[in-house]
Amino acid sequence: MEKIIEAHELTKKFGEFKAVNKISFDVKKGEIFGFLGANGAGKSTAMRMLTGLLSPTSGAATVAGFDVFSQQEEIKKNIGYMSQKFSLYNDLTLMENITFYGGIYGLSSNEIKERGALLIDRLGLTDIKKKLLKEVPLGWKQKIAFSVATLHNPKIVFLDEPTGGVDPITRRQFWEMIYEKADQGMTVFVTTHYMDEAEYCHRISMMVHGEIHGYGSPNQLKEEFNAQNMDEVFIHLARGDQYKLK
Predict the structure, then answer these.
(1) CA distance 238 to 241
(2) Helix (H) or strand (E) holding 237
(3) Nearest alpha-carbon partner for 158 in 101, 88, 84, 80
(4) What total number of domains does the chain contain?
């Protein structure tokens, strides 16, 4: 399968502190790739480098064929991004958010109108399309934010802790939306500290203190450590047990 993200010894330092230390991995086209780890493990810093929002200190990486050091603007044109805060404006209506982000993504007025109508219809949000986003429940904001982040059909969508603070049922519904996009050929790169969400990914990378301590499919890693679930795998990796999968 085609590699759409490649990183080799990618590093980010803040002064003497290494937030991300020589991480190497690849992501295949159409793959759901999980970037897991505890809070503060370096997941969001790594994602910001890959999305062109933060310049690396050293190493190498390409995203959709573009270099993270010299082609950051080209990267931004080929990706979607959903932050922990859902990237929506609470003082705008649903349709105003769609129009705003559609314009940022370079869609024409007709494309925004057509795709916005399709988004609203698919999510069943006709009754609230004129409401301010601050009046919409958190779970719906999450689904809307994901839909808006993929409005322009990007090659890759980056999701930074997208399911934080929502109930398990809404989390599962959100993952169903992710599967739908992956089935359409979109690559999904998702960071999370929920270890059970690793089971939803094709492959995962597990970060510990800014470094990759585990890399492979969930089943491979569970087999490697004779673990019943990903929480047990993470415990092994966090205490320094070595994995051999490549």
Answers:
(1) 7
(2) helix 230-238
(3) 80
(4) 1
In a domain, residue 226? The reply is: no
List the chain pLDDT tens, one digit each, 246 residues.
799 999 999 999 999 999 999 999 999 999 999 999 888 889 989 999 999 999 999 999 999 999 999 999 999 999 999 987 667 889 999 999 999 999 988 899 999 999 999 999 988 888 888 889 889 888 888 889 999 999 999 999 999 888 877 788 888 888 999 999 999 999 999 998 888 888 999 999 999 999 999 999 999 999 988 999 988 988 888 887 777 765
Q: Which segments of 64-167 are extended strands (E)?
A: 66-67, 79-82, 156-160
Q: Is residue 201 part of a domain?
A: no
Tokens in use for 31? 């793959």
The residue count for the chain: 246
If you search the block for the tokens 């590093």, which residue do you land on?
11
User: Residue 173, Cβ neighbours under 10 Å: how many?
Assistant: 15
pTM given for the model: 0.91
Q: Could you tell me if residue 126 is inside a domain? A: yes
Q: Find the DSSP H helices in 58-189.
A: 72-77, 94-104, 109-123, 138-149, 168-183
Structure tokens, 12 = 């980010």
Q: Which domain holds residue 107?
A: 85-153
Q: In whole angstroms, what is the distance from residue 207 CA to residue 128 CA?
A: 39
